[in-house]
Design brief:
It is a single chain. This protein has about 350 residues and is an alpha/beta fold. The chain contains ten helices and eight strands. Strands 1-2-4-3-5-6-7-8 form an eight-stranded mixed sheet, sandwiched between helices. Strand 7, helix 8 and strand 8 (about 320-325) form a beta-alpha-beta unit. The chain is globular, with a radius of gyration of 22 Å. Residues about 1-35 have low confidence and may be disordered.
Length: about 350
C-alpha cells in the first residue's frame, strides 16, 4: 500500500493539481473552458478597433470592427454585421461571433443597438424596434463605404432578439445579401404572447395599462422604472424558472457579465417599463417571404426554449432557407459555448452566399 501511495503522490497528485489550476486560470480570465464557454475570446489573427457612425436619424451607433491580419491591400472582402442579444451589448456574444468569423477571412462589425451600450439614445435601455432595425442598415452604410469591403457582399448574424431586428431590416434593405439568425427571439411575439403562447390577453392588457400609467410618472419628472431582463446578482432562488437560471448563468456571472460605461450592474439587460410594450406592435416575420431570393439560415438549439421562433420564421420564409438544429444545445448555450456554436456552418453559409 505504501508503494501505491508514493506512486500516487509522485505522479498522479501533481497531474491533478495541474488540471485544477488550469481550470482556475480559465475562470479567472472570464472563460469557463471546462464547459467550453469563451464569451470574451480574443484572437491574435484579427485586429479589433472601436468605430462609430451615424444612423439615418443622426444617432451615433457604436461598434467594433474586426479585420483579419491576412487581408491584402487594395483588395475588397465580404463583410458580416453581428447583432447582440436583446438587452445585452456587443461585448456579450456579438464580439465572440465577430472575432471567430473574422478568423475565417470576413470583415466583421459588432454593434451596440441604439439605447444600449455605447450607442446613442435616451433614456437608456429604451425599446424602439424600428430603430434597432435601422442600426443594421446604418451598419451597411458604414461597411459599404470602407475601401476594403465589397459592398455587394454584406451579410448579417442576429443573435437572440437581434435575429428579429436583422430580419426586419433585411425586408426593406436589399443590401443585406445573406441573413443568419442564432437562438432567435421574435421580440414581438414573445412580448405579446409569452413563450408557447402562455400570456393571456387579460395579462397583456394589464402590462399595457401599467406601462401607460408609468408614462405619466416619467412625463412629470418621476423615476424611470425597468422591467423584464435577467434577475439581478444575488437575487436568484431555487424556485426561479430554469430559463431564469439559464440567463443568470450568463449575464450575472464571470462567464458573460459586462456593465457598459455609464450604466449600473442592476440595470443591465432591463428595458424601461414604459417603452417595452412597443414590442407588441413589432411583427418582424410578416412579409418575411419578400426577402427571397436572398438566403436565410436559422440556427437554434434542439433543446432551446426559444426554438419556436426559428421554426415559425422558417415556416413563413420562402426559399432559399434552412433551419439548422444544434444537438444538445439550449438557447444561451449558443451565446458563447464554442464547442456547440456551429461556426463551420456559418462560414460555409456566408462563403457560399457572399
Amino acid at each position: 500500500m505504501r508503494n501505491v501511495y508514493l506512486y500516487f503522490r509522485k505522479y498522479f497528485l501533481p497531474l491533478l493539481n495541474l488540471i485544477f489550476f488550469s481550470i482556475l486560470s480559465s475562470l479567472s480570465n472570464g472563460a469557463d473552458m471546462y464547459n467550453q464557454t469563451d464569451n470574451f475570446y480574443q484572437s491574435n489573427l484579427v485586429t479589433r478597433q472601436p468605430v462609430n457612425f451615424l444612423n439615418q436619424y443622426q444617432m451615433k451607433v457604436a461598434g467594433n470592427l474586426f479585420i483579419p491580419k491576412s487581408i491584402i491591400t487594395n483588395q475588397k472582402y465580404p463583410a458580416i454585421i453581428v447583432g447582440h442579444p436583446m438587452g445585452a451589448v456587443k461585448e456579450q456574444s456579438a464580439n465572440l461571433y465577430a472575432t471567430k468569423m473574422a478568423e475565417q477571412g470576413f470583415i466583421t462589425l459588432s454593434i451596440d443597438l441604439s439605447f444600449w451600450g455605447e450607442s446613442d439614445g435616451h433614456p437608456r435601455n429604451a425599446v424602439l424596434p424600428d430603430m434597432y432595425s435601422e442600426d443594421f442598415s446604418a451598419a451597411v452604410d458604414f461597411l459599404g463605404t470602407q475601401p476594403f469591403v465589397d459592398r455587394n457582399k454584406i451579410g448579417v448574424i442576429g443573435i437572440c432578439g437581434s435575429g428579429s431586428f436583422a430580419i426586419s431590416a433585411a425586408k426593406i434593405d436589399p443590401r443585406l445579401k445573406a441573413i443568419a439568425t442564432v437562438s432567435m427571439y421574435d421580440m414581438g411575439a414573445a412580448t405579446r404572447n409569452g413563450l408557447h403562447h402562455t400570456l393571456t390577453l387579460q395579462k397583456r392588457k394589464q402590462i399595457i395599462q401599467q406601462a401607460a400609467e408609468q408614462r405619466y410618472i416619467e412625463f412629470t419628472g418621476g423615476k424611470i422604472e425597468y422591467t423584464g431582463g435577467t434577475i439581478n446578482k444575488g437575487k436568484i432562488t431555487a424556485s426561479d424558472s430554469p430559463i431564469a437560471h439559464e440567463f443568470y448563468d450568463f449575464y450575472r456571472t464571470a462567464r458573460g457579465e459586462f456593465t457598459p460605461s455609464g450604466s449600473q450592474p442592476d440595470l443591465t439587460t432591463h428595458p424601461t417599463l414604459s417603452s417595452n410594450p412597443k414590442f407588441m406592435n413589432f411583427y418582424p416575420f410578416n412579409d418575411i417571404e419578400t426577402i427571397s431570393p436572398r438566403p436565410l439560415l436559422f440556427i437554434t438549439g434542439d433543446k432551446a426554449h426559444s426554438k419556436e421562433f426559428s421554426e415559425d420564421a422558417y415556416r413563413r420564409a420562402a426559399e432559399p432557407k434552412e433551419l439548422y438544429y444544434v444537438k444538445n444545445a439550449g438557447h444561451v448555450d449558443l451565446y458563447d459555448r464554442v464547442n456547440l456554436i456551429p461556426f463551420a456552418k456559418l462560414t460555409s453559409f456566408f462563403k457560399t452566399n457572399l
